[in-house]
Amino acid sequence: MSYTSTTLADLQKEHEDALNAAQEEMMANLNAAQASGDFQKIQEVSVSFQNTATKLADDYTKRIEEINALNEKVEAEKVPDIYSDKRANIDLNHLVYDGDRDYVVEFQKNELIQDILERISATNGRFKSRKHLLKSSLRLTKTLAPMLHEIGEHCKQVLKLKAEIEFFVYQSDIFNASCYPPDDNRLYIILSSGLLERFSKEELTFVVGHEIGHVLFEHFDYPVRQILDVGENDLAPIHAMKLYAWHRNAEISADRVGLLCCQDFETAGRTFFKLSSGVTTDSLDFQLNAYIEQFVDLEEALNDANHDPSDWYSSHPFSPLRIKALELFNKSETYASFNDKVRGETSKEGMELEIKRIMSLMEPESLEENNECSEKIQRFMFLGGYLISNADGVVDDSEIQALSSIVLPNVFANCMMTIKGLTQDEMIEEVQQLSNDLDLVLSVMQKLNILRDLSIISYADGQIDDSEVHVLYNLARLLRINTDFIDRVISDAQGV
Question: Which top EC class is named for this enzyme in its record (predicted)?
Fold first, then answer.
């Protein structure tokens, strides 16, 4: 037969139905052959079924490849334009960081996250930004803060804003700035008194532009903390990691708007320096190149075997990562398309790929599907996940669902068909052999990523059993990773 399904979910069901039909036909023929005592016929029926099953498996794998190729082609051909010009007359779809946009597209398609957003909207109503700000802070009129309003007018012209900007200040020595959900005709920028007093006009221009960037890219649409609070009984740790990863990527997009406004990369670097060091006097000699070089040291530290998984739940990128990402943008053809005084040295594609690599330092490392060890990695993850699920003697639906989320669909389907033929000891023996093979070729971060994904299985049913954690410890030891990492992953995930 030829499979005709166009989605992986439908294909899996079509394949299972075909196998069941073949098995039923085999059993009917076997019963008939046994009843007549025709032992040659029994052998022929068995061989025929094996051939049919092999053919079905081959057709199934081929159709999976066809569906994946079709999906990849559609995704490659269509980069969605998801940002409108309702707030500014600039091309936000060209300006946005790809990592920011891609997560938003994923969230838009995620029914669970969309359902939680609807619940948030239904219970909280519309937040009255201006009313709250007038009660809690001081509105800075043009008379009170003429320089700030000059900055606002400059940003409005550069970004071709369609709304007015209203500034507020509150008392705090901590350097902080934020924006509140806008109205149709007003944007609200809030600054701490410490920031307003100790940053130069140029530095404040970068800060104000950055905050406007959050508004332009509609980052208010996904309030991470509220989503996690309202969805605490529905969301898995992987959702939290993706939400925080998006939040970090959103900062990269906002930084680009900040640079568009201040139009000077060194100013942006000095702003990051002040925000991260707290030093605003001349007691330190600021050198932009030396500050950027800190990225090299941070990159080495983030690739250490004792990587802290709490990075995956951080809401902001580390400053050296941000300044490095902004340096790449500053030299790109993308920035040059917005600033005719700049000559772009790097293509948009090259810039985005390198920034993606930089941002991945704060995320679990991707295990590429075309990796030469991919088949072994996927098999190890499936068997390891199944051993975790079965540690308490019961493999429930939520654990199977979690297991299906960490391996590729075709691997999951094939493994589920073969798992019943293996004993517990045989699974353990295969996992040990796979770990020996993988230990030699995987990076530390790839091993951590595997263990992070496998940890999801341990709390998929809403509780963490000691026996499941014990299996996780053994898997970590096989990959030569300290078991403390397992404790931190589970602790951080539970905390989120």
Answer: hydrolase
Phi, psi dihedral angles at 340 (to 5 degrees): -70, -5
Which domain, by its residues, includes 401?
A: 374-495
Contact 355, 252 (CB under 8 A): yes
Q: Using CA atoms, how far apart are residues 130 and 136, in angstroms rounded to an integer?
A: 10
| 260: amino acid identity, one letter | L
| Pair 169, 253 in one domain | yes
Distance CA 271, CA 278 (A): 10
The overall pTM is greater than 0.90: no
What is the H or E stretch that residue 189 is in?
strand 186-192
Q: Are residues 353 and 401 in the same domain?
A: no
Q: Is position 2 within any domain?
A: no
- Provide the pLDDT confidence category of residue 369 given band limits of 50, 70 and 90: very low
Three-class secondary structure of residue 222 per DSSP:
coil
pLDDT digits (tens, 9 = 90+) for 120-157: 988 876 668 888 888 889 999 999 999 999 999 999 99
181 within 8 A of 53, measured Cβ to Cβ: no
Rounded Cα distance between 490 and 487, Å, is 5
Q: What are phi and psi of 180, to 5 degrees?
A: -105, 160
User: Are 244 and 385 within one domain?
Assistant: no
Are 185 and 278 contained in the same domain?
yes
For residue 354, give both structure tokens: 């390198």
Model confidence at 446, in pLDDT bands (50, 70, 90)?
Answer: confident
| Count of structural domains within the chain | 3
Q: Which of 52, 77, 102 is the last residue of a domain?
A: 77
Percent of the chain with pLDDT over 70: 81
Rounded distance between C-alpha atoms, residue 146 and residue 91, angstroms: 30
Residue among 172, 262, 247 at smallest CA distance from 208? 262
| Pair 347, 409 in one domain | no
CA–CA dist 304, 437 (Å, integer): 21
Token pair listed for 370: 């075309």
Average pLDDT over residues 49-56: 79
Mean pLDDT of 395-411: 74
